[in-house]
Amino acid sequence: MKSADPAPPMQHALEMARRAVGTSSPNPPVGAVVVRDCEVVGEGWTQPPGQAHAEVVALQNAGDRARGAILYVTLEPHSYHGRTPPCTQQIIDAGIVEVHAAILDPNPLVSGRGVVILREAGIPTHVGEREDEARELIEPHAKHITTGLPLVTVKFAASLDGKISTRTGDSKWITGEESRAYVHQLRAASDAIMVGIGTVLADDPQLTARNHEGSALPRQPLRVIVDSRGRIPHDARLLSEPGDTLVAVAESGLQIRGAEVVYILDSDGKVNLPALIQELGRREITSVFVEGGGTLIGSLFDLHLVDKVVAFVAPVIIGGRSALSPVGGLGSERMADALRLNRVKLREFGDDVAIIGYCGL
Description:
By secondary structure, the chain is of the alpha/beta class. 25% of the residues lie in helices and 22% in strands. It has 10 helices and 14 strands. It has helices at residues 9-18, 54-62, 87-94, 113-120, 131-137, 139-147, 177-189, 197-203, 273-282, 294-302; strands spanning 31-36, 39-45, 70-73, 98-101, 125-127, 151-159, 192-196, 222-226, 245-249, 260-263, 287-290, 308-314, 342-349, 352-358. The strands form 2 sheets. It has a 9-stranded mixed β-sheet. Helix 8 links the parallel strand 7 (192-196) and strand 8. The longest helix is centred in the middle third of the chain and has 13 residues, at 177-189.
């Protein structure tokens, strides 16, 4: 342990929380640090489900030095017995004298209860420091715990004139290496990656999360393919990649080697997308990262199933009337009805710009 922490304690806790992204689900990624006499004596982040929460890891790391110390944690300590015992009691037993939590637990059944328990035990507890950053980290968990549904994020990359490929279908690559590396980070942070069958047939993607060296990560998100007629080729690359694949179909009796098949029929003879999203939520999938194609993305927007958008724009002009655009579906009849994102952020990746925003979440 370092003798001094160069970052403010809550910033340090947020850095710890980011280490849990992609591994803690369905629990939220949380970070914690224990500070005594202006020195960090313990730190930790949420372990995989069934293992210790961030506060407990930090307290164990601190040992006896936790007595008389201050705890900084990115989420209100939980006060109920779930997969693990309540963190509040372990904080009390460790002799912590003050607690700073970035945000309250979004679970409406317990929100604020941990703070009350700590205060009743005589431990001053403060809430609100760096809350926006902490809230963004746990947004998939917050959506799932309050609705039973996953956070649905749509990602696409387009040229400056709004095309996702040339008129011949060539799309590799519109964006640069920095943008594509960030996409792998977003994949790794997600519980599931979703694409339509058109993307599989056109691009034969692997749909894996990879590191900067191009190697597949140990933990892979679930691959979800929307394929009403079961047209996925038996030799599609994604079927032989590490991790699991789920193919949603609208015809009963279909079997696909290397994948689980789920039959979800809509009245129009296609896959029922709202029912599919509900099924993923039932499986404790808290985040779905949708990567195409335009038909699937357009349908998700038409059905108001999208929570977040990550749109990359590259300084490239493709042109062509028949070149595809990223969003299909019915779309809006009037500009007044067009979806406008809120809480918009811009990030630069080399020459590319990513526009990140929310659909009313």
